[in-house]
Structure formats: C-alpha cells, structure tokens
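Lesson 9: reading folded outputs for more than one chain in a single document. The general rule is that every protein is listed as its sequence immediately followed by its structure tokens, and records are never interleaved. Here is the first one.
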Amino acid sequence: MARCTAPVEGHRSSSAAANCPACRGGRFRGRYRNYGYDYEPSYSSPSSFSSSVNNGGSRSSGGGSSRSVRPRWSRSTSSVLYTPEEVRALTPIRDSVEKQASLDLRDVFLCHAWDDRQGPAKELHDLLESRGVKVWFSEKDVGLGVPLLRAIDKGLANSRIGIVLVTPALLRRLPTEGIADKELSALLAGERLIPIVHNTTYEALREVSPLLASRSGLSTAEDSMTDVAAKLADLVAI
C-alpha cells in the first residue's frame, strides 16, 4: 500500500496532495494513520484564513505559518495577510502611525548599510514607492554638499516609522558605531522600528545587536521582498 507523505512533507496545497502516492486518488481530506500518526488535516483557501489574532497560529521552523490573519488596520480591499506573530509585533508600530496621522510626515525612514544602497535597499525603496509609500532614502534625499548627519536627523524627525534592512553588510557595519548605528539608536528609542532581515538570520543579528534582535519584524526568508513591501505599505496606510 502506498504511504501518505503528509506526516513528513505536509499537504498545504492541492498540488502537494496530488503528488502524494496515497492521496492523489481523493483522500486529500481524509484521515491518516501512516507512520503512527493519527490526525485529520483541514485545508482551506487563502481567503478563509482571515481571522483575529486570538485564533492562534504559529510560524513553523520551515519558514511558513499554520495560519494567516487579517489585522485590524487592513482595509477591506487589502489582500495582505500576516502571521499572528507579525500582527503582535507590528501592532505597536501601527499605533504610532495612527497617532501621527494628522502630521505631514514621510511614511518610512529606510535605514540601511552603505553597501546595500544600490542593491536590496534600493529594491525595497522602489517596491514601497510603487505602492504609494513615502520613503526617506539617503540615495535620493541627501543632496550634494548637504551634511549627511544633519540630513539623517531631519529625515528621522520627519518620518512616522523606521525600517532597518538587516543584511550581512549591516552586520559588518554595526560594530564600528557608524551612521547606521546612530540611526538605530534614535529609532529604538520609540515604538517605531521594524527590522527587515534579508540574507541573514535573527541569530546572526543577536550576536551583533541583541537590542535590535529583540524587536520582531519581517524576514525575506519567510516572504519575498515584494510581499514584505506589501505588508509595510498596508501597515502605514492611513
């Protein structure tokens, strides 16, 4: 008898079930007892995952989530879904955004390593701006002859929240206590900083900056850069 692959590989989609030698014949929603497991999985379309954070769910070690939720700030037309962990981490940031809704500010201050300015930092900037997010980005907001630190201070003061793009380049720069470190210090002072981990891990960040690593954020290991930008745009929309 063919054995079901659900206990090992999971059946998170119809295609996964279709590839299972035991389930491709129609047992997709059945009960499984292979390999000593006894459980009845439930599968739903993405639209049915929308729920309150109290419904639970967790981020798996494999980079997924057992449930996606729609936070209170999402508009009815938004298709962006978050994990419960992301909602808990981002709710204080959203509260800060709402408190400053009447002020004429940039939506986001983008903190990044100098080495990433033409790479992932620009990619994230462009994705955010394509969604109508007003981003302070040193590559376009610091003119020739303008003192960099003064420009950064002004950018920080005139942005609702900050996002820090955590990359291997940033991890190399942080121990030198350069400009990026000063930006982070200002942003960490309030509930308005979101780490975006890209091509590295929170474990690696924790070794360099335990304080920054203590802030939950988003990761491109969990979502594509496009999806990360969509979540950020949804978060700051007023």
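And here is the second record, again sequence then tokens.
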Amino acid sequence: MRIALFVTCLADTLFPEAGKATTVLLERLGHEVEFPAAQTCCGQMHVNTGYARAALPLVRRYAEVFEDFDVIVVPSGSCTGSIRHQHAMVARRCGDEALAARAEAVAARTYELSQLLVDVLGVEDVGAYYPHRVTYHPTCHSLRLLRAGDRPLRLLRQVRGIDLVELPDAEVCCGFGGTFAVKNADTSTAMLADKMRSVLATRAEVCTAGDSSCLMHIGGGLSRLRAGTRTVHLAEILAATPDTP
C-alpha cells in the first residue's frame, strides 16, 4: 500500500513536528510514507473566504499530485474535511466535471490520521508511551464534518503512562475557525476564554488535538496566561516512545 503524507500549510510552515511525527508513527507500524514535494495548499482558506475560483488550481494540483497513491494521510481534520467536502464541489461550481470526478476519487482515499489508524489500518494500540496528564479537544471539523467520533480517544487510551482526563464541554468550539478569528476577533477571543477555562479545570499538563490550527489558538491563549499547560499535536503523542527526548 502506497501511503503519501499531505503535510498541510500550517505543519509545513509553523508546526513541522506534526508531519514528522505522523511519518515516524506510520513507519514504526511498518508502512513506508512518501512525501510528494509538488504538494501545495488544499485551498480551504480560499473557499471559506468566498474565493472558490481561486481555489480551483489548488484542487487540480492536489488531484494531480496524489491520485497515484493508495492512501493519503493528513495530520489535520480541517484540511481533510476541505479535501473531502469542498474539492469536488469547487470543481463543479467552476464547470469542470472531469476534475470533480478526479477530486472525488482522491478524496475518498484521503484520511485524517486517527481515521487512517483505526478504520484503514485497524490499529488502536500504536505502542506509544507518554507519561503526562493529558486532555483532548475534539476539533470542529474532525467532530462535525469528518465524524471522527471517539477514534482519537480510543488511540489515546492505549498510550502507556498517560493520565487521560476528560475535557469539560469538550465539543464546544475553541473559537479559531480560520479567518473567523480574524473577522470576528472579539467573539473568537470570548470562545477561546471559555475553552481555556475548561482546559485549566482538568489540571492537565498537555492539551492535545488533531489540528495544529486549533492548538495554535489554544496554545497562544494559554501561553499568554503563563498557565503551564502546553499544546501538543495528537500525532506527537502517538509517535512518542520511552526513548523520545
């Protein structure tokens, strides 16, 4: 099975450890992961901001780069949601039915990390070791768009050494929402305050999630509070072993 990594813009530019951890984890499980260097943005930001036609070249590029792979793994529920639910729609709205068909075919083989592990590879115990108190934030796109459900939690429960604590009001949005945080900054800030209150109530050392964007938002707020709680991508926890620094 040929597995490709779609690393996403945020991981590429700001949070490379998420992409590296995804690769380390899958290779530890016996799979070779390829990284097509020609990959670019999924176009989610363009579509969500109302520039669907500007996203069309990005939809075409994604199909061209990844259509020869059996599986594409993405360390982001948000970007996976965009690929699965926006790419074909964008192509059709722009009158390119042939591209829409290609986009649908590639999207069907594109998986968020926890879905790939549980649904495709059939594994919940990935051999991880992470001796920290952790709480999990289910991001909106993974929860509502991808229907990832409890897959991330099932993976976390199998991590050795972890003290996994339930996050109060877990399903409430953290307030990021991409450009929403820019266009509606006051509302976003208020939602973040509620989320941080819930995180701090757990007394967790680490807040984890499957999206670097939400972790960036939550982590930024926590760092300004000097709360002592840090954010770590789900992939980094699952890739951790007793030998991890």
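What the second record shows: DSSP finds 14 helices and eight strands in the chain.
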